Amino acid sequence: MADDLDEDYAKAGFGGRLERGERPALLIVDVCMAYLDRASPLYAGVEAALASNIRLAEAARAAGVPVIFTRVAYGAGGVDGGLFYRKVPALKAFLPGSRLGEFHPDLVPAAGEVVVTKQYASAFFGTSLAATLNAMRIDTLFVTGFSTSGCVRATALDALQNGFVPFVVAEACGDRDRRPHDANLFDLQAKYAEVVSEADALAMIAAA
Question: Which partner for 148 in 97, 104, 173, 186 could form a disulfide, CB atoms 3.0-4.6 Å apart?
Answer without folding.
Answer: 173
